[in-house]
Amino acid sequence: MRHGGQILVDHLKTERVSRVFSVPGESFLAALDGLYDSGIDNIVCRQEGGAAMMAEAHGKLTGTPGVCFVTRGPGATNASAGIHVAMQDATPMVVFVGQIARAHRDRGAFQEVDYRAFFGPLAKWACEVDQVERLPEYLARAFHVARTGRPGPVVVALPEDMLSSMADAPDRPALPATKGHVGRADADAIMAAITTSARPLLIAGGPGWTAEAGAALMDFAVTNALPVATAFRRQDYVDNRHPNYIGDLGLGINPALKTIFDEADTLVVLGSRLGDIVTGSYEMLDPATTGKQIVHVYPCAEELGRVYHADQTVVATGPSAIAAISELPPLTATPWADWTQQGRAAYDAFQTPVETPGPIKLERIMHELSGTLPDDTIMTNGAGNYATWLHRYFRFKEYGTQLAPTSGSMGYGFPAAVAASLQHPDRTVIAWLGDGEFQMTLNEMSTAIQHGAKPIAIIVNNGRYGTIRMHQEKTYPARVSGTALVNPDFADLARAYGGHGETVTKTDDFNAAFKRAKASGKLAVIELVVDEQVATPGLTLDQLRAQGEAG
């Protein structure tokens, strides 16, 4: 006989879960008891949003479901931000939520929420377990749903009296994940589509990726002289130094890459959704008439044809398709070879620094980081204009080195860096953050100190919510409302938490500050105090305002 919490934790071990992220609550005491001597590392966080984002980042890094425990009511609603990231980013995650006792339902009991109704539209699956004997059934299904097809978050609500009940319930084995299948006929059809093209473009993205798949894709691209672009915030899927890589289809897109996308007559989409960011708010690719031949490989059948008609659809991951087409003989003619070289030249030209106003030159700092950091350095960020310097100037070299929300969620960058440092304590982990971004989850500095994580957070401090100010100046120039920030001394705050803190006001001082932060061997914060005119890599605040006034 075992209580429900022990049954749950025993299944976590069956799923080979080594680490969970949590904020404790009285609603799942039995699960905490099960974790007590389980050997599973329980990372105790400071707020459920941070815990869920850490679990999501863990899922991205490992390809296995990140696991999060939160309590009922406000705990669950706080966690919803991280659940939304996992859903939009197709990240496997299982979130366990404590629930009120079963006999108290529908009375408006303390912190009562109907989680199936609340999380139904937000998660891949939301369920509630009423019978302790059925826990193994629900748990096996939850992990299977989280990692199969298009991966995503699963929410499992656990009534506290169910979880503390005793049962003699046999464990269930973990179910293997499926990656779909790309047969020889599918592979031949993909190659035929490329062969009939004048200007084909390969787009890599989506779930289920591996380092081996990225290398195989670029080998295939070299053999057939094809250009490769990555989807938004999937830049680490291939080595950005590769001559066939031409950039990322993200925010702040290289105008020359947009032209290449427009000119392409065939898109071979390997694992990515054709969402609004990749397609420039659906303007670079008209859903009504695309004007292109489209081959779409994606592991979820419901996504294929959801917005765009595709001439060929394959239900599989991008890496599965790459493995299949890589086995085919190389093409005998590649008339697009010069076009591919032009794409790479345009990417290299876009790397030329555009000077940032003021004594802190973000482009110089980012180039320095890109050129000197180890290839396996993990870079994280959340949402904000500050991230565009990272997207534009940093060259990702290895898979699994970019953690960023395609959902555009603020507050993600620092919790993700904590999770990355815990997973890879021997690697350099840098959180590239804005001042507004950092303040949403900086309380997780306490989590980092407690559990020995040592990310280096670099804060671009311009005293505002920069992205919203940009849009504000374009739409309502000179009418600044609700975007100014009063910030703490971030370096002092890091020291107060027990970490290392530095404030940098000149570019020439950055390298020494970074070396001291790295040598500290603990959580570190470097605050970059930038000029108030810093807005985007290409435009100052005054230039944005002038654009808005010109209308």
Which CATH class of the largest domain? Alpha Beta
Total individual domains:
3
Indicate the CATH architecture of the largest domain: 3-Layer(aba) Sandwich
Low-pLDDT stretches are none
- SS elements, strand count: 20
CATH homologous superfamily heading of the largest domain: Thiamin diphosphate (ThDP)-binding fold, Pyr/PP domains
Main beta sheet strand tally, sense and closure: 6 strands, parallel
What name does CATH use for the topology of the largest domain?
A: Rossmann fold
* Strands in their spatial order, largest beta sheet: 3-2-4-5-7-6
Q: Classify the helix fraction into a percent range.
A: 25-40%
Indicate the mean pLDDT: 95
What best-fitting shape do the alpha-carbon axes yield? globular
Global structural class: alpha/beta
Number of helices: 21
What order do the helices and strands come in, and which of them pair?
Blueprint: E1 2-3, H1 4-14, E2 19-22, H2 29-35, E3 41-44, H3 48-62, E4 66-70, H4 74-89, E5 93-99, H5 115-119, E6 125-128, H6 135-147, E7 153-159, H7 160-164, E8 166-167, H8 184-195, E9 200-204, H9 211-223, E10 228-231, E11 245-249, H10 255-263, E12 266-270, E13 293-298, E14 312-315, H11 318-326, H12 337-350, H13 362-372, E15 378-380, H14 387-393, E16 402-403, H15 413-423, E17 429-434, H16 435-441, H17 445-451, E18 456-461, H18 466-475, H19 490-497, E19 500-504, H20 510-519, E20 524-529, H21 541-550
Parallel strand pairs: 2-3, 2-4, 4-5, 5-7, 6-7, 9-10, 9-12, 10-11, 12-13, 13-14, 15-16, 15-17, 17-18, 18-20, 19-20
Antiparallel strand pairs: 1-8
